[in-house]
Amino acid sequence: MPDDQGRLTPAEQQLVSDWLETKWVGEKCCPICKMDKWNAGVFVSTELNMGSTEVILGGCSVTPHIQLVCSNCGNTLIFNAVLLGIVPKAEA
Ligand SMILES: [Zn+2]
């Protein structure tokens, strides 16, 4: 579980890298610049939901994300942190 600032532990960062290795099929080049220089973010980010409930944070429904950033052009891919197993799913 990320700390109270949302920072991933080194073990969680490794989990993200391992997960991407198993899920990302084919070339790992950026669709914008065609480089292969991705860096996993070290923080969990969120967006507010209008409907579905992934996690309740401070009374708000949010979906936690892990960002994967192209270090060449800044293009950012976003992955669901619950699906990756980084953040536990909210109890119904
Ligand atoms: Zn790029």
What do these coordinates show?
The chain has one domain (10-84). Helix content is 20%, strand content 33%. The protein contains 2 helices and 4 strands. It has helices spanning 10-23, 81-84; strands spanning 38-48, 55-57, 60-70, 76-80. Strands 1, 2, 3 and 4 form a 4-stranded antiparallel β-sheet that branches. The two termini are 19 Å apart. Residues 30, 32-33, 35, 70, 72-73, 75 line the site of zinc ion.
How many separate helices? 2
Along the chain, the helix and strand elements come as HEEEEH
Overall body shape:
globular
User: What value does the Rg take, in angstroms?
Assistant: 14 Å
Largest sheet: 4 strands, antiparallel
Q: What is the helix content?
A: 10-25%
Number of strands: 4
List low-confidence stretches: none
Quick summary:
This protein is an alpha+beta fold and 92 residues long. The chain has helices at residues 10-23, 81-84, and strands at residues 38-48, 55-57, 60-70, 76-80.
